Amino acid sequence: MSEKAIESYGKGFLVLLLPISFLIIFLVATWRIWLGVILLVLGFNIWQLYKWQKWCQQANPIFHQLVRENQGRITPMDLAIKGNFPGEIAKRYLDTKAGEFGASTVNSEDGSKVYYFITASTLGSILDSSEPPKEFPTQPVAQYALPFLAPPPPQSHLQEPETESLPQPTQEEAKKPLEKQLMFGSLIQSELAKRLNVYSSTVYKRRDDPDFSEWSRTKDPDGVAWKYSRKTKEFFPVEEGKS
Fold first, then answer.
1. Residue 215 falls within a domain, yes or no?
2. Which residue ranges in the chain fall short of pLDDT 50?
3. Is 185 in the same domain as 93?
4. What is the pTM of this model?
5. Taking a C-beta distance cutoff of 8 angstroms, is the pair 33, 73 a contact?
6. Which of 2, 40, 76, 186 is the most exposed place for a label (fewest CB within 10 A)?
């Protein structure tokens, strides 16, 4: 790099460095003043916000009265006249309330803004003034019945609940002698139910009854009495003379 280039580069750096140095020195010397200005502006804004909130609290009763009297329809002029407020302040107040309550705004023909605040009483009056729905003449239901829906057939008597038929033993099972059925000297619950021509659940319910032997004797085709063994969960024939 030539000496002229280095010299020009150094001059440019000094030109940029001098203003920055002066600015830093100025801020260091006057930082107390800038801090006071910032605090003063912040305090002024807080004070303005406090004053606005206090003013809104005083204007709220007038606003509520106008909402009731005008059924929710308010213009900035109405509020300004009612409360003797400046127009700009009235408009700002209504803009705040419109955002708070979700009111709708409409521009009138003269360019002024109209605010609509919907209340329960306003909504009720709107519904009451609306046109009632037209009533159609009542017609028998049969005239509007669909063609594929036929009326149910008349019932001459009450239908008895359908009951499942009892399991009937086959002819071969009926001809089997007791000795062949007692291949292992006993019968299980389903086998005994077929022999007695009852449901298996019936045998299950009555197996612990004291009169189960006598009951099973009346159901058995050979008049054999049966007893239940809790140990083996099986049914054994009762020999005559033994209980």
1. yes
2. 129-131, 133-134, 136, 141-150, 156-164, 171, 174-175
3. no
4. 0.40
5. no
6. 2
